[in-house]
């Protein structure tokens, strides 16, 4: 059996990440892979309950960081781990890089503290590929304003998203072997062409 791979989608709210999830899942399914599509916070019944709290309930920033990692612990145990063990491909709409970006960059929690939690919750597992959808803040904001009602994060001010975006870019810089930076200010078709090439490459290796 060919082993599955773990792909994560990241980017600030409004970058266009959700737009491309189904496209990438379909590419892989057409190539004959079993695909599990999931999201964070969430992905399990308990994780989805925690998501409701994280997105809508005011709380201390450390509580927020602990809850996203609690949801992730459950996600790894119930869904991600078993799926990868079966040889499925797992695509997650956000993972630990989002905690470094939002709780670290946006909220200002020290990266070292988040690294402690990362080392506790998944000391050995990292995504095989992280697609970072990157856009200027004004583009993301304009897309969000046109698209939906904001949650607790989407109501944050521009400086929060500037810090979140910077933290994402720092992660990409620190882990170049698994990050792929996608210029998401381009038209959807151009982004899909790039995604097809990246996914063909990865699927060809496995
Ligand atoms: N490349 C793009 N060009 C123009 N609009 C886009 C593009 N990508 C996404 N959008 C639109 O922007 C909005 C936010 O996209 P979404 O995928 O929900 O972002 P995210 O999941 O990153 O928050 C949606 O209305 C979507 O249709
Ligand atoms: C996974 C994760 C998400 N988040 C935030 C980022 C997003 O604003 C929010 C999840 O929303 P998102 O995945 O963007 O879902 P939607 O497209 O429905 O808005 O949770 C964190 O703050 N830390 C985390 O570790």
TrEMBL record:
Which key words are in the record? ATP-binding, Kinase, Nucleotide biosynthesis, Nucleotide-binding, Transferase
**Enzyme's top EC category:** transferase
Identify the residues that the record assigns to the Thymidylate kinase-like domain, covering every copy: 9-194
- Signal peptide positions are none
GO molecular function ontology, one term from the record? kinase activity
Q: What is its EC number?
A: 2.7.4.9
Q: Where does ATP bind?
A: 11-18
Family that this chain belongs to: Belongs to the thymidylate kinase family.
* HAMAP family in alphabetical order: Thymidylate_kinase (MF_00165)
Q: What does this protein do?
A: Phosphorylation of dTMP to form dTDP in both de novo and salvage pathways of dTTP synthesis.
Protein name per the record:
Thymidylate kinase
Where does this protein come from, organism-wise? Noviherbaspirillum aridicola
